[in-house]
Amino acid sequence: MPGSRWGVNIIPCGLLFFAAQSCDVLDKEPIEFVSTEETFANANEETLQSYCNTLYPDMLSGHGAFNGYSFGMMEGDFQSDNILPWSPNEVAFSQHSISTKDKDNWKWEIVRACNSFLEYYELSPVAESVKQRYAGEILFFKSMDYFNKVRRFGDVPWYDHVLIPGDEDIYKARDSRTVVMANVLKDINQAIAWLPTKATTGVSRISKDAALALKARLCLFEGTFRRYHNIEGDTEFLQAAYDAAGELMKPEYGYSLFQGSSPSQAYHELFIQADYNGNPEIILSREYDPAVGGANNVSRMIGVGESPIGFSRDAVEDYLCAKTGKPISLCGCEGHTTHTTLVAELNNRDPRLLQTVASPEAGEHSYQLNGKRPGISSLLSGLYQSSTGYAVAKFFNPEEFTTTHNMGTMDAPIFRYGEILLIRAEAGAELGLDPELDKTINALRDRVGFTHHLTANPEQDPKLVEEYPTIKGANANLIREIRRERRVELMAEGLRYSDLMRWACGLRLNKKKLGFMPDIAKSTDDPTAYSQEEYDKLLKELGFVDGALDVYTKRMTNPVPNFIEPKNYLFSIPTDEIGLNPNLTQNPGWEL
């Protein structure tokens, strides 16, 4: 419920610093805090908590805004080579132009709100432990906001106080990412020291555990970005990522991988739950409840599909063969190395594939397809579940699916233990330390009954060499396999684009955007295959590359991918901001 999802007590609208916003504080953007010594001198715990609450909906996006029309976190993968939406994503094609405003990303309200709290919270008369708890939440959000800015823009101004008219820092230049991230690391460490554990806060409130997870994520990003973009200081951040993940793996935190009802459904079931309280894998979640006006729209968006999405062929081909444990290009299995049918292609693979991609084969993994072939949007009336032929099953809950908007109850995992295990493995492999494969990668495989374990010296996969040509850690094949595992385990969770950027693998986005290989019906009663007429129509109207659906070339105007190194590893600084502050400089390649 909105009144409890972040431990909120809705307070009267007339209470001083909320005077400028409506009573429904959780559905509003964070606003400038009208901070005065008197206000904080009279602030009780409820007041401090309510201040923090205004930041939650903006910073923890989850499945999107309450009652929004959104795919939620999946939309992050639209920018990558994982998910291909019906209309080409500008970032995935590197066709986004120089920004004039970028008001959703180059905004400083959250930093200002955090700095305002940190300047005055000590005036509150509540116990020091209470003040530090909410200061820890504020430091968490400030760290997350700066991390998001650095990922997007690189160098940004670092502000550690509230700016007032006449402050010379209003027109300061961008600070280097090394300065900014050093301060972020300092802040997140302080948050970890001050915050109580999840056992005290609950799964939907910021905790020490969540701060450790954020530290692990941001330090892995920064460490590998520096390593693969030739910036000093990579080892410090990789070690911090390794240590933070290792801390959360200690028994006293109580985390383990969610096992579900069976290995064949555990992974899928993890992402369709309405309540993550008590789930041993979820570190932090965002709650949704349509009964009180806080719904999401995810299952409906996937199942109805007015704007259909689908997984790319490239993503699907990264799932290993279940019979041999090898890449499908090397396993020699019928339907894998040589295509026969879509059903044969999806079967006998890493079990996470059939819990992520809906199968046209009737049975437990058909989900919204109900034993029918995936439709290619408007070409086939009545079947709208996919843009690529690889229909999305992850985050689709058949039991709550409805064509009515804003009825979704599924909570959104913001941080989960599975990601922590991947961070531990990757940081360890990059540093030449123990990646603890049996506790990390192989534990993830065991959860779904995938019996082929990753070893310290895996066979080289030519596809991965092409995908990740430059590896700077000592064990290149192991690092590549950990990256494969990360792609598979975190598919559709919105992290793939950031991964490609930090690994300096942006040129991957210039590859053809391909979908499935359709089957021609062998008989008139085959619901999973196309008739010869339909097949010919697909060939003519959409086009194919080596037998696979070319998703955009014939259907869309000029969807030519154009990733340029090093330009597209960062976004442009908004030109309006440079006009207001001439001390701001533009990122390389974006200069007018």
Characterization of this structure:
There is one protein chain. This protein starts with 36 loop residues before the first helix and ends in a 12-residue tail after the last helix. It has helices spanning 37-41, 45-53, 56-59, 75-78, 109-120, 128-153, 177-194, 198-201, 208-228, 234-248, 266-270, 298-304, 313-316, 328-331, 342-346, 417-431, 441-447, 462-467, 476-489, 496-502, 532-541, 575-580; strands at 282-286, 412-416, 544-545, 548-549. It is 35% helix and 2% strand. Residues 1-35 and 379-384 have low confidence and may be disordered. α6 packs antiparallel against α7 and α9 packs across α20 (496-502). The protein has 592 residues and is mainly α. It has 22 helices and four strands. The strands form two sheets. The chain has a two-stranded antiparallel sheet. It has a two-stranded antiparallel ribbon with strand order 3-4. It has a domain at 1-60 and 99-195: Alpha Horseshoe (Serine Threonine Protein Phosphatase 5, Tetratricopeptide repeat), CATH 1.25.40.
Contiguous low-pLDDT stretches (5 residues minimum) are 1-35, 379-384
- SS element count, helices: 22
Averaged pLDDT, please? 91
Distance between the termini: 48 Å
Task: Walk me through the topology.
Elements lengths: L36 H5 L3 H9 L2 H4 L15 H4 L30 H12 L7 H26 L23 H18 L3 H4 L6 H21 L5 H15 L17 H5 L11 E5 L11 H7 L8 H4 L11 H4 L10 H5 L65 E5 H15 L9 H7 L14 H6 L8 H14 L6 H7 L29 H10 L2 E2 L2 E2 L25 H6 L12
Task: Characterize this entry briefly.
The chain is built from 22 helices and four strands.
